[in-house]
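Kindly inspect both lines:
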Amino acid sequence: MTTYGDDVLGRARVTDNADLRAYYDKLARLDAGALWTVANRIEPWFPQPESVPVKWGYRELRPLVLEALRLVSGDDAGRRVVALYNPRRRDIAATVGLLYSGLQVMGPGESMTAHRHRAAALRFVLEGTGAWTVVDGQKLRVGPRDFAITPNWTWHEHGNEGDDGPVIWQDGLDIPLVNALDAGFYEVHPDLRQEQEGITNSSLHVYGAGQLRPFGDPWRRNHSPLLAYPWEPTYEALLNAAKATDGSPYDGVIMEYSNPLTGGSVMPTMSAHMQLLRPGEATLAHRQVGSKIYTAAKGSGHSVVAGARVDWTEGDIFCVPSWAWHEHANASRSDDACLFSFNDFPVMRALGFFREEAYPDHGGHQPVA
């Protein structure tokens, strides 16, 4: 005997028997089925993500990322990337939820050919000083802790023009989302390389002032016209905000990388944040509908995700599945710590799915398993 669901009004609670099993077999032969047998699973009381919390230690991964330089060329690989898979979502190449992330490495003097795809992409530089990317003709130079975007269907290529070592940056894409919607396209540039338009970092020169915007600007695309967000002004903004505000009890002093023309997220499907935890600061726990991927940008500390402690230091990456309780703490009593993160909140908000809750018990902190 199998009972579908629990004995709660409005939920399926049908007891299995031989006649029903025969009926289900008849439906299956017609590629049909009885909704009540799966209703409680596909319409849960609250989000039940397949993804689980995972941490990827940079100290362990870095030697393997560098080993790829010797084993495969960038041209042969297309993009030499070590992908970060959630153990429950390897089937869709997801890091958490419908987000993907990986570590890309480029040797000195190396460059990748231009291409474009329907998936949107972002980059967060972990190490190396010669990184560059060209997005729709605009060349950007980026360094450690810099953040850059490659909006969907924009031509882009990238490389390392330095001579003092490799560049490693973190990729973030919405590939699993695009594939779930059967919307994927991919093209290689007909000339393999783009012609640079204007001066290097032109979007930063035009749109990077923050409090100023070009008067009468004709920009009408649905992503930020600012394509690179350097670390130095980002960190300075966090420090200045910390002088004037206590920040969020759940995230410390946190700021979103934004479209300077609209104040909205940098791209329609992904947003990104940088948050500062003061020395010794420990936040309260909360949860949100939406998946998040964190990278330790500065300092060290720990987070508690779904009741499990995750210790992190610079370069480490960890994920928070949708609706999982999470909180953060800075391990240092004398220096601040910073966490970079990106998420799918713009999708959740656009669809009316976003929701947030504070942890109600134990003074706002989770018990740690």
